[in-house]
Amino acid sequence: MEIRKINEIDKESAASSLFTSDDVSRQPLAPSSDDFNCSIVNFGTGVKNKFHVHESDQILIVTEGKGIVATESLESELAVGEVVFAPAGEKHWHGAVPGSTFSHITITRKGAQTTQLED
Description:
Layout: E1 12-13, E2 24-28, E3 36-43, E4 52-54, E5 58-65, E6 67-70, E7 75-78, E8 83-86, E9 93-96, E10 102-109, E11 114-116
Antiparallel strand pairs: 1-2, 2-3, 3-10, 4-11, 5-8, 5-10, 6-7, 6-9
């Protein structure tokens, strides 16, 4: 068993073409897990990711700031404490609202691929 404090977990860059800015970091929460990818993703002010899909279900748990989650037909503002369930294969994006940073815990199945759907 491991017990860790979130504020003591190093932030590593998560910059990639999936995001609208390089101002995004990740804090791995369960790096030893054989079953789950679980980390905190920290978005800089107004930063979001682009439309994408996951091979597995995804759970997002909002931990800081204000954000948005959207599909092609729905866009919802998110606040601390809200939980999002995105089923495998659902086209979506999420990130910070303009003027705010945003952080969420993300949980997906280990080994599941994420496919970016826009440039």
